[in-house]
Each structure stands twice: as structure tokens, then as C-alpha cells.
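Morning!

This is the sequence you dropped in the shared folder:
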Amino acid sequence: MKKFVSFILIIVTMLTLSLAMTGCSEKSSSKEVTGIYGLERMFYKYEVGTSENETYNFADKYDYYILVMYKDNTGKVIMKPEDGEESSYSVTYTVKYKEDEPDVVESVCVSGFSVPQYELVDDSPVLTFSEAKEATFTFVPVLDELTYRKYDVSDVVNTGTRTTNLLEFSRFTMKTTDKRIEKAKARQIERKDVRSSNIKHPV
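The structure's back. C-alpha cells below.
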């Protein structure tokens, strides 16, 4: 009988430890933002009151647009516009955690990042990129998404216009090897048609 009770206690202890370790693993994974992220959405939205609403998608203008974040808080951006040459530049990043949930990432600040910006020419936006700056991305661990979103409502009072600039990356893999980067490029090329209509969630 004693052996049976001891056996049951050992099983219960092992199950408890197993669940505890799983819980720790899930928490630590929410802190882990390293990896290779590929472009999912990139658009500029122009609104005038409630009557005029134009969304200009630029996500399919790139064969690939990749953000790599290494474990040492360095990273790089690799991008190739359609009919253009590949270019890249280095960045660094810092992670901010939620105050009420210190194990959960709230946002990632990427320093040295060139943010997409738009200028209206003949009522259509022309894409350019800012000088290197700090860009804050919200991070959603469940979806593995990094999203930069900027609203401009400065003209709402005078003209009723407001704009939204959105750039979203989805994590391809947590591994950051050169081989994985090449696979991410190939996947981005395959998904180019998907990105052409990948404007979800009204903003």
C-alpha cells in the first residue's frame, strides 16, 4: 500500500512539474521577439469625412521586405522592390514589456529604421522613406506580428481629412540563419499576390 501511495505521489509531482515548466515556456515565448519577419501589409489610407475613403496598398510593390532581429538586440532590414535591386541596412532594437504583465512584450522600438512615408501627387500617394529614426512597433505574441501604425489627424478640424500609415510584419521563423533568411525571401516572393489584397481589419 505504501509503495502504491508513493508511486501516486511521484506521478502527481511529475505532472505538476511538467505543467509548471510548460507555463514557464509559454511565458518566455511571449518575451522572445527574435526572428525573421516578412512584410504582410503596407498601406496608406486617406479619409475625408465619411464620404471619401481611399486606401493605397504598397505591400505588393516589393518582392520581399524583411526585418531580421537577432538575440543581441541588433538586426537588419532587407528589401527588394519589384524591378529593383536588393538593399539592406542595420538596425538595433529594444523591447518594452507590459506594466501589469512584465513577462509579456508590449512593443518593440527599432532604432535606425526608415519608415515608409507618403506624399500626395495628383491625388495619389508617392512612397518614399524617412531618414533613419526610431519606429515603435506593437507586438502581438499570439499572431507573431509587428505593426507600425501612425495616424495623422492634424487636418481634421480644418479640412476633415485624416490619414493612416500602416506597416505590418509577420514572423517567418525565430531562427536567424542565412539559410532561413533566403527561405524567407522565397516565401515573400511566393506571397506577393496575397499581399496585393492583404488589407484586412478596417482602421
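Headline: Confidence is low (pLDDT under 50) at residues 2-30.

More detail when I'm at my desk.
O.
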